[in-house]
TrEMBL record:
Enzyme Commission number(s): 1.11.1.28
Name of this protein: Alkyl hydroperoxide reductase AhpD
Organism: Streptomyces caeni
Role played: Antioxidant protein with alkyl hydroperoxidase activity. Required for the reduction of the AhpC active site cysteine residues and for the regeneration of the AhpC enzyme activity.
NCBIfam families: ahpD, ahpD_dom
Active-site residues (renumbered): 131 (proton donor), 134 (cysteine sulfenic acid (-soh) intermediate)
UniProt keyword annotation of Cell cycle present: no
Gene3D superfamilies for the chain: AhpD-like
Disulphides: 131-134
Keywords assigned by UniProt, alphabetized: Antioxidant, Disulfide bond, Oxidoreductase, Peroxidase, Redox-active center
First-tier enzyme category under EC: oxidoreductase
Catalytic function, reaction form: N(6)-[(R)-dihydrolipoyl]-L-lysyl-[lipoyl-carrier protein] + a hydroperoxide = N(6)-[(R)-lipoyl]-L-lysyl-[lipoyl-carrier protein] + an alcohol + H2O
Amino acid sequence: MSLDSLKAAVPDHAKDLRLNLGSVIGNSGLPAQQLWGTVLATAIASRSPIVLHELEPEAKANLTPEAYTAAKSAAAVMAMNNVFYRTRHLLSDHEYGNLRAGLRMNVIGNHGVDRADFELWCFAVSAVNGCGSCLDSHEQVLRKAGVQRDVVQEAFKIAAVIHAVGVTLDAEAVLAK
């Protein structure tokens, strides 16, 4: 199971995705931990069993046990936060913003990896899940930590491509039945 297997599974009508997948992962300028944590977190967020099955072993091989767990934690906590904060943002009654969230999210402060890496993974998951509030919040933290815009953009490029590959391969699996 690998990136090559996943690329080979992409149908010809989506060959741009195949090329982009090879580019955003194979030619990324991100350090290995940032890259593979972003890949794992967005593969989980894509909700595609095919994508997760193919990319998880390679991510696990390229991450420390702490980073592997932290990337999964970023995907988990952002699955909750993205729904909560996106909903709060979309409601026309802005008074919800003044109410206490009351949700546990201790992992955001206690994840075991460099804070910028964890924030990048949360940001990338938020891109997949489409939460503008979370995107803004995590992007601001990243920028204040000195993370450059090209690194932030690299994370949402990875998120976009992994999500698109998941949508495409899952659709092909259904259509083949």
